[in-house]
Amino acid sequence: MRSGQLFKLLICVLTAATISGAALAEQTRGPVTNLPLPRFVSLKASEGNVRRGPSLSHRIDWVFTRRDMPLEITGEYGHWRRVRDRDGAGGWMHYSLLSGARTVIVAQDMTPLLMKPDTGAPAVAHAEAGVVARLGDCSLEWCRISADGKRGWVTKASLWGVRPEEIRD
Q: Which member of 18, 119, 121, 149 has the lowest number of beta carbons within 10 Å of its beta carbon?
């Protein structure tokens, strides 16, 4: 291959990569809501059917039975949202079963809830693994959560339902 042909091939590859990157960037918004994908929500109802596809005619694969459980929306189709839980299990749920209220699951057992976002701060309580908590403010390393009347700061790494780079005021 001559250098002129190689140059044209390189330009074509770079152009295709740029177009693919732009298309990928556009896909980070849901086609229905124009909200970011993926994003976290919570289960509004005490029960929510998880279906194989985005309609009532699709088979129910299982039922989520934990009100306020955090879920990650990974897709949208009409009134349906493709969700997954912290174990990666997922399917399609009707949007009316979901809430924008943010919750998290404590992933590490006996996670200390600290008075302030500092490893040297005193603990006000400890949370067992699996506890569902309301999500408050978050910095790059810390989040404020509340559960069972207790409130405190925990390391973001000990939670599921918040992105590592996410900051909340």
A: 149
Q: 29-34 — which CB contacts under 8 Å span 24+ positions?
A: 30/73, 30/75, 30/76, 31/76, 32/76, 32/77, 32/78, 33/76
Calpha distance 50→89 (Å, rounded) = 10
CB atoms closer than 10 angstroms to residue 15: 10
- What CATH topology corresponds to 39-101? SH3 type barrels. (2.30.30)
CATH 2.30.30.40 residue window(s) in the chain: 39-101, 104-160
Residues 6+ apart with CB under 8 A from 91: 50, 51, 52, 61, 62, 82, 83
The CATH architecture one would assign to domain 104-160 is Roll (2.30)
Cβ proximity of 50 and 60 under 8 Å: yes
- Distance between CA atoms of residues 101 and 117, nearest Å: 22
Encode pLDDT of 100-157 as tens digits.
Answer: 999 999 999 999 999 999 999 999 999 999 999 999 999 999 999 999 999 999 999 9
Q: What is the pTM of this model?
A: 0.81
